[in-house]
């Protein structure tokens, strides 16, 4: 069931790769599913903080931020198609109902598409499954 998308299948695959990288970066912050223990050296702690905010806590992996910006840069039709592919991959719609899914995504669009999609822990899997279902 080939569909004519505004977004290319390669672009959607890139979104899936970035989503997978962002999810992996989050998983790597925990050891065995638990927060690591934090040890403080009481002799070196002082009342004052000599750093610029929380800058040192920023991760080098900017995948989630990049993905968020890329999704936010999509126009209404592109964002609706990306959501529709996700819904098809998640099983909410059949591949033959792509146009209906995209229309519903346009109608239901409220707030940030990036926030909605990035709130899905399995976004990368849904995008890939959606592309497979659409034979793209």
TrEMBL record:
InterPro entries: DUF3775. Residues 43-62 are annotated as: Disordered. Pfam families: DUF3775 (PF12616). It comes from the Bacteria. This is DUF3775 domain-containing protein. The lineage of its organism: Bacteria, Pseudomonadati, Pseudomonadota, Alphaproteobacteria, Hyphomicrobiales.
């Amino acid at each position: 069931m080939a569909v004519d998308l505004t977004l290319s299948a390669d672009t959607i695959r890139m979104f899936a790769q970035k989503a997978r990288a962002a999810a992996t970066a989050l998983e790597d912050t925990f050891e065995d599913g638990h927060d690591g223990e934090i040890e403080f050296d009481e002799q070196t702690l002082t009342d004052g903080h000599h750093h610029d905010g929380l800058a040192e806590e920023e991760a080098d992996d900017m995948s989630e931020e990049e993905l968020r910006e890329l999704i936010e840069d999509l126009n209404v039709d592109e964002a609706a198609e990306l959501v529709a592919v996700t819904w098809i991959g998640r099983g909410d719609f059949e591949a033959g109902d792509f146009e209906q899914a995209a229309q519903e995504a346009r109608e239901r669009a409220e707030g940030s598409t990036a926030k909605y999609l990035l709130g899905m822990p399995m976004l990368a899997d849904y995008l890939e499954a959606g592309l497979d279902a659409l034979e793209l």
